[in-house]
């Protein structure tokens, strides 16, 4: 009797696991380098979309790869992580936090506060800032 229940249950769990595994988005560092962003926005529009009820950001989902252009507010190297904050010129405290890939160190060292850059990365969400992970610089000083 138990066997009649256990075998189908194991089969259902196996199929469910396979489905989830196959349909997971691959947001590894290599994928971000090769992928075309789902969206291109400037930092002001992106932050403004999350700090107000703006429909321009409603279709951005967690794990989407997005491209953002903005002016560098801060470059942080705390805890061996390279993080670039893109400014929100609307006067708010929120910005776009770009946690950079380690292979971007040479490019980051050439940058300074006030430079305008374009990055792409994996959108993770919005807390106080818009958070992008595994970011790469796609074009400098446009």
List keywords for this structure.
single chain, five-stranded mixed barrel
How many distinct folded domains? 1
- Taken in chain order, the helices and strands follow as HHEHEEEHEE
User: Any guess at the CATH architecture?
Assistant: Beta Barrel
- Multimeric state: single chain
Mean pLDDT: 81
- What fold name stands as the CATH topology? OB fold (Dihydrolipoamide Acetyltransferase, E2P)
Note the overall shape.
elongated
Put simply, the count of helices is: 4
Characterization of the model:
There is one protein chain. The chain is an alpha/beta fold and 142 residues long. The chain has helices at residues 2-23, 29-34, 43-51, 105-109; strands at 39-42, 65-76, 83-86, 96-100, 116-126, 130-140. The chain has one domain (27-140): Beta Barrel (OB fold (Dihydrolipoamide Acetyltransferase, E2P)), CATH 2.40.50.140. The chain is built from four helices and six strands, in the order H-H-E-H-E-E-E-H-E-E. Strands 2-3-4-6-5 form a five-stranded mixed β-barrel.
